[in-house]
User: Fold this.
Amino acid sequence: MKFTLFTLLAGLTATSAFAPVATTPSATTTSTSLSAATFFNKKPAATKNSKGNGLPDWWNQGVGVTEPAGFFDPLKLSEGQDAQTLVKFREAELKHGRVAMMAALGFIVSELYHPMMESTINVDSIYAFQEFERLNDGPLIPLLILVAAAEGAVASKKWAPVDLKTKQTLDATKSNAFKMQADTVPGDYGWDPLNLFPTDAEEQLKYQNAELNHGRIAMLAIAGFVAQEEITKQGIVESWLTGAAFPFN
Assistant:
């Protein structure tokens, strides 16, 4: 049985998954106009309620709504959600996309070059971590500490505060648990050492859409890589060279 890279090709038609469409629960006309504009991949026209609908600016601007799918939310996960929830959705999408982009590249590179493992060991990427753990004592612990520190730093800046000082303050703020601050910018950690992010609004939109789409494709790609290696019992590069990854051979 041969597994194909159709996972990647199919992903091209779904690269706008979980993209925003502006909705205003209290203003039907504003919701309709914004939805139509973002569906046809056009920047939403300014309306009287577009800046006062309680949703983030990037949401109202249609960041992430791109062709060919336009606005794509078949399960209606974004319908009726508040700003804090929408920010958390986009933050999660960006974070998973960034990790997936590194993982997709690492999957291929690690099968060709793996300096952290013994040179005599060459395994498929889906088994590389287990092999690394077996050959090196305790690398998982520092990795978990690093991930926890990174997540903690993000939570301290972006998550809505819960005050544990007294029972009264806890009761007043416990509804903020696991919610992000509504005014935070998803994916912005203040880290751009090369100053790549432009200052022009239109160029910023292009960069944001490019990152989202690359991340979406990468999430589909890494899922396809894992499935492909498991089914073909060959590494990604090896399956390309032998033709096992292609369905019509």
In short: The two ends are 11 Å apart (CA to CA). The first helix runs from residue 6 to 11. Residues 1-50 have pLDDT under 50 and may be disordered. Residues 91 and 101 are 15 Å apart (CA to CA).
